[in-house]
Amino acid sequence: MSFKIIDKAELKFDLRNSNHIEATVLSASKGELILYLDGIEDGLEAEVLIAIRKSADVAVFQNAKLNKGQLRIEWSDLLDSWHDRNKFYADVFIQIDNKLFKPILNVEMGDRFLSEFAVGKGTGSKNQPVYLVYGTKGTTMSLAITKGTLYQMAAEKLQASVEVVKFKISKSGYIVELKVRTGAGMDIEPTNLAMIQRTTIENREIYYPVEVQKTNSEEMVIRSKIDQHGEWVPFNWDLYIEFNSEKWAIRGLLEVKKMRPLVAMKVNQDQFRKNVSLPDDHIMYPYMTVAGNLAFTYRPLEEYETEKILRIEKWAVRYAKLLAPFYQRRNIWIGYEKNSFGAHDNGYHFFKYVYDNNKHPEMYYVIRENSPENKNLDGMRDKTLKFMSWKYFVYLYSARLLVSSDSKFHVYNMQRRDSALAKALMRKKNVFLQHGVNGMKKVPVFHQSQGWLDFIIAPSQFEKDYITVPQWGYKSKDVAVTGYARWDSYEDKTGTISFRQIFVMPTWRNWMEGMSREKFVTTPFYHEYQNFLNSTELKEVLKKSNTRIAFFLHPYFKDYVDLFDIDESVIDKYGYLEVDMGEEIQKSSLMISDYSSVLWDMYYLKKPTIFFQFDREAYLQDEGAYLNYDQDAFGDVTFTADETIKAINKYVQNGFVEDDEIKRLRPKYFNYVDKNNAKRIYQAISANEHRLTTLKEDTTNRRIKKYVKAKILKTPVIGKAAKKIKKL
After folding, report:
1. Are 128 and 80 contacting, i.e. CB atoms less than 8 angstroms apart?
2. Does the pLDDT value for residue 701 go beyond 70?
3. Helical H runs in 488-634?
4. What 8-state DSSP symbol labels residue 302?
């Protein structure tokens, strides 16, 4: 059965003004929906509309005929077309003889969830898309459909939740007790505790047996031990309960979510007091997520995680606490970049502006001693902090404000959230200078609800109006449109080299996290770039035009750089920080990337770009994007090595000049093209300094207060009084 997607504005009637018609769902599968409509004569033609809530999309099935009261809707193609959408709810309507009806189900409230089924590719992973056909809440239950992940839909249908009620740490692992509650009767049989790696592409799972401690009609307590067995890979793993149930037709999976406050306090301690050490210089330990859930990390030990440095950190923090009044008066600001290893991005350029213009004498810059960019701080050593030194620990603990091009834990240890210093960092506010212009991929970790960022520096009004405020959820006053500090130093340097340079920089794919070198060489990423870089046609184009490629890999590719076999007569290969990326961009005549924000830097310099997106479908499934690549890309979009080489040849032939339609987009994406971005950033921070240098409440205390408040309000006397006050 064919359908078409239209906008609600195109409808000739208002969906809110519909009549009711009693309906019975005879069948609901991924292939079709069959309804019996009471009191409708045979032979009439109907039009079925399925409208997504909070969206303009309506799917319209035309020429559906009633046969013996039955209406058959073949919707598998529709569900496949909606496969890439995130969770949604949709309502079903039927139009007969120009009258609009909403099917009302004649079922009991407890039976309002009628059917569930998986659609699209997948093998029962936690992120397998699952659809539920159900009746909406209320006395009249209209027919609807919702889509979400496997574990989300299982929890929704069974009205289930899982809470960690006990947690014990031992030398060999961790013992957990979990309380499972359901609103539809305790009709589940737990089979395993599943530890699942937090990724959406590769599905890695480790299973632990469970033992039922007690059960009744509403809740069940189960126990399990988590140990070192299984094929662990870095980094984050979440807990789920695998179960069987007559009320759930596909794989049963429930997410282990909240922890009781006493459990949270035990989990939320320094990881080196709760870790399990492994023989291969890796550690495993539990932690509390931003949402307050129990999760686990498996990772290699960092080179600076030695007993000596951990001891220095402990005593430096105690010293800083003792002298807190003195250090607080100094109003210390700390600047840094990715992993405290760089000095070339917005963090460095803003710090340099502040230092050179003596704007804030108590601003300091953190960098590792072994960083190749440490030399960029020459002449500013009096305001430089050596990473993991005594002074660094004292000043970082005492700082009033963090100003950086990356999130706050890049100044410390990306994997530690529960040490005394980590908890102090959580309370400090962060001015996010950003690493790159947003739009190429979704970054939910930067959303306001996550609590990581406090004041955003935006490169343009476009980003503020379309991404930072509506998508990330920040208030307008928390976003300043200034341009990027590093752009103040940008200029065209193509004339400083004796050849034309093409800058090629693919971005990282999250699903390759923890991947072995053997597995990496089997990926589409490796094969596509090998085919591109080793193309005979590409080499001929480069040699004839005196052009070279600078192949620059994202820092997370550092373990795989040497695996690429290239022709050094026309290609230069660089790892992270082997060259100054900004300098190479300024020297280049053309840039090729896929979803990396560095493409914006090239566009800022009025140079052409190519979006080489051979794995767009997989990338959008895993990461998503705020921009529509087909409509908003400011360069050529290619999907194969041959198409990319053809685009390169076009720019070689026209002297590396942008297409006219690409030039016309520039005013939309950039407000400022001058040398005053760092000045505007400083002015924006100064105007908001009082609120930015005020500490936030400790997250653990906030959670405990919320829990205690909820418990108090549940007591009969206080609860009734609170409800009366709320009414007034």
Report:
1. no
2. no
3. 517-520, 524-533, 536-544, 581-587, 598-604, 616-622, 629-632
4. P
Per-residue CA distances from 164 to 189, 435, 631, 646, 726 (Å)? 18, 37, 47, 57, 31
Beta bridge partners of 4: 60
Which residue from 205, 202, 241, 239 is spatially nearest to 122, judged by alpha carbons? 202
φ, ψ for residue 516 (rounded to 5)? -70, 160
Contact indicator for 405, 337 with CB cutoff of 8 Å: yes
Distance CA 684, CA 216 (A): 59
User: Residues 95, 146: contact at Cβ < 8 Å?
Assistant: no
For 243, 295, 701, the CA distances from 267, given in Å and listed in that order, are 26, 10, 14
Nearest CA among 287, 161, 274, 176 for reference residue 224: 176
- Report the relative pairing of strands 113-118 and 99-105 from DSSP bridges: unpaired
Q: How far is 681 from 683, CA to CA, in rounded Å?
A: 5
Distance from C-alpha of 498 to C-alpha of 552, rounded to nearest angstrom: 20
HSE-up of 685 (CA within 13 Å, CB side)? Answer: 25
Q: Is 566 exposed, middle or buried (0-12, 13-18, 19+ CB in 10 A)?
A: middle
Q: Which tens digits make up the pLDDT trace of 527-545?
A: 999 999 999 999 999 999 9
Give the H or E element holding residue 164.
strand 161-169
CB neighbour burial string for 465-478, b if at least 16 within 10 angstroms, e if fewer: ebbbbebbebeeeb
DSSP one-letter code for 20 = E
Least Cα distance to 609 among 666, 665, 651 occurs for 651
- Quick: pLDDT tens for 422-465: 999 999 999 999 988 988 888 888 999 888 899 999 999 999 99
Amino acid type, 641? A
Rounded mean pLDDT, 172-199: 88
Whether cis (ω within 30° of 0) applies to the bond prior to 503 is: no
H helices of 410-523, where? Answer: 420-427, 461-463, 517-520
Q: Nearest to residue 76, comparing CAs of 124, 37, 131? A: 131
Q: Is the CB of residue 36 less than 8 Å from the CB of residue 26? A: yes
User: Is the CB of residue 514 less than 8 Å from the CB of residue 231?
Assistant: no
What are all long-range contacts of 658-666, with beta carbons under 8 Å and residues at least 24 apart?
Answer: 658/606, 658/607, 658/608, 659/608, 662/608, 662/634, 662/635, 663/606, 665/634, 666/603, 666/606, 666/634
| Helices within 419-512 (DSSP H only) | 420-427, 461-463
What are the phi and psi torsion angles at 660 (to 5°)?
-60, -40
Whether the CB-CB separation of 573 and 565 falls below 8 Å is answered with no
Helix H or strand E encompassing 151? helix 150-158
For the purposes of burial, counting CB atoms within 10 Å of the CB of 572, is it exposed (0-12), middle (13-18) or buried (19 or more)? Answer: middle
CA trace torsion 558, 560, 565, 568 (10° rounding): 0
* pLDDT single digits (tens) 370-394: 999 999 999 999 999 999 999 999 9
Q: Which residues pair with 94 in a beta bridge?
A: 48, 101
Pair type for strands 333-336 and 363-367: parallel
Q: Are 88 and 53 in contact (CB under 8 A)?
A: yes
- Answer for the pair 577, 553: CB distance below 8 angstroms, yes or no: no
Task: Give the position of tokens 């923090």.
Answer: 317
419 neighbors 388 (Cβ within 8 angstroms): no
